Amino acid sequence: MPSPQFSENNIDSESADALTIQKIQKGDKLAFKRIYIDNAIPLVRYVTGLLNSVDGAEDIVQDVFASIWERRRSWNPKGKIVAYLYKAVRNKTLNVLEHDGVISRIADENRSRLSGYNNLDNEYVVEAIHNPVMLGGSPVQLPNQSLEQTETHEKIIAAINTLPERRRLAILLRAVHELEYGEIAEAMEISERAVRILVSRAREKLREILGDSLR
Amino acid sequence: MRDDLRESHETPNESSLDLTIRQVWTASARGDAEGMWERFEARYIEEEGRDAQLQRRSYKESEESVGSLTGRGHRATRSQFRRPLLLGITASLLLIAGWYTGATRVASSIASNVSVYTTNNGDRATISLPDGSTVLLNVGSKLEVPGNFAVGSRSLKLTGEALFNVKHQSGTPFTVVAGSITTRVLGTTFVIRRYETDTTVMVAVREGKVEVESEVLVESERIFVALNGVVTRAGVTEAQFSFADNVLKIEGVELSQAIHDLNRWYDVEIRLSPDSELLGGRVVQGAFAVGTPSDIASIISFMFNVRVERQGRILTVHSK
């Protein structure tokens, strides 16, 4: 009985993401850790903005990764992994906001921010809430960073977090994770044109808020 | 290429804004993520490993694993699948190696009624019973555990295949009902198999002693009970226990029969096209590790020198 070895080359995979998914399905902890390290903190920062609080943000992100790891055998996201992750933590956060009575007033504000997204016009209604809490993980100050730079950092994060949620998600996927508009459209379940509008409105708003802070 | 695309989308101004956003949003992200990963690992991965070590009977792969089962909020663990896809038939198979019980996040909601554990095709799971016994549920199987299990009697119902490792408890018999056949157990390790596609109930004893209807089986004995009640005896081979070691062993079975096992193991549906009907009589012999539909497609095409067309989980076999 011959015993050939079947390598990953046999498995039709177009992209690096598809290969990563296959590895994770087979229980490759390193492949899993890689997507974790690449995305955990940006995701915590994103959830922090949704919750208006650092508390709970890490738990939500941990839970999402835990659930992927638990059901890795059948984990098979369509499209980009990073898009899936944002979608998953967003849904999880929505559930928390909806079911957790502890988060009350702020959550209500957030819920209204989060719920009005089905059409683009609603975004005007649910325009920015000032959000003083933005740092997920740890302070953003880097070792060799001046206080002034740190302030700029915080100001930019604050500005991003004041964006309506869908604009924020769109600009993050575009600017931070460099997804194609089509990939973002798939993840957000809207048209590519709508994504372009969200991204360009986000950019406008950020320029407006940040003004001089941007070089 | 992506840069070209991006340039066509963004003005230089936009690109520089995007870059700023990216730098700010990902500042110190990887460094911070390492600490977060340690917390993650400690909470979701290492604790499982520790729990498992207490219960494992033999130490094999020390990789972690958890899977969730459908059914009443219980969780059980899945085995680890990181082996070559086709193992040599001589591979020695240890019983109950590298499988785990009782994840750290058990949502225990055992009501007074029956808890149902099911595994999908391609998945296996370990279930810890309240009496300390464990059940490794093979692919595409179902185990029903009554809420009053371990109170006075220990009775289970099985469809499919499972390996039982029963804690001896004098005065509290352990019984498994599969099809119309009841197996009574003293402390022991044994496999019961009765899939819908099977025409018999099979019981194979690895250790100890069991009683199947009125037949007594001891270590290394195996029994088949047909639907009409006819009993056939045989000895055990490694193949009956190999799934506990993440391997499906098929020892000289015609492909038309082996298809059922392969379908469950790889969660596929193998079809023999009319032009390849003769293939159904070819004999399958080998050890199959865990893999994907495309893995088994490659294996079949290699083993029988045929062309396998794959559409999702449906594999159609054509003669070349």
If you had to describe this structure to a student in words, what would you say it looks like?
The complex is a heterodimer of chains A (215) and B (320). Helix content of chain A is 63%, strand content 0%. Chain A has helices at 16-25, 29-51, 57-70, 81-99, 105-115, 122-125, 147-161, 165-176, 181-188, 192-210. The longest helix of chain A has 23 residues, at 29-51. Chain B has 320 residues and is of the alpha+beta class. In chain B, 23% of the residues lie in helices and 34% in strands. In chain B, strands 4, 5, 6, 7, 8, 9, 10, 11, 12, 13, 14, 15 and 16 form a 13-stranded mixed beta sheet that branches. Chain B is flat and about 85 Å long. Classes of the chains: A mainly alpha (215), B alpha+beta (320). Chains A and B meet through helix 2, helix 3, helix 7, helix 8 and helix 10 of A and helix 1, helix 2, helix 3, strand 1 and strand 3 of B.
Strand content of chain A: under 5%
| Rg of chain B computed from alpha carbons, rounded to a whole number of angstroms | 24 Å
Overall 3D shape of chain B: flat
- Structural class given helices, strands, pairing of chain B? alpha+beta
What's the helix and strand layout?
The complex is a heterodimer of chains A (215) and B (320).
Chain A: H1 16-25, H2 29-51, H3 57-70, H4 81-99, H5 105-115, H6 122-125, H7 147-161, H8 165-176, H9 181-188, H10 192-210
Helix pairs in contact in A: 1-2, 2-3, 2-4, 3-4, 7-10, 8-10, 9-10
Chain B: H1 2-9, H2 12-25, H3 29-55, E1 67-68, E2 75-76, E3 86-87, E4 115-118, E5 125-128, E6 134-137, E7 142-145, E8 154-166, E9 174-178, E10 181-185, E11 188-194, E12 200-207, E13 209-212, E14 215-218, E15 221-226, E16 231-235, E17 247-254, H4 255-266, E18 269-272, E19 283-289, H5 293-304, E20 306-311, E21 314-319
Parallel strand pairs in B: 8-9, 18-21
Antiparallel strand pairs in B: 1-2, 3-19, 4-7, 5-6, 6-8, 7-8, 8-11, 9-10, 10-13, 11-12, 12-15, 13-14, 15-16, 17-19, 20-21
